[in-house]
Amino acid sequence: MPQLTCIDPNEQAIEVAFEPGETILQATYRAGVDGILAECGGGCSCATCHVMLTSDWDGTLDAASPQEADMLSFAVDPTPQSRLACQVQLNEQHDGLTLTVAKRQY
Question: pTM higher than 0.90, yes or no?
Answer without folding.
Answer: yes
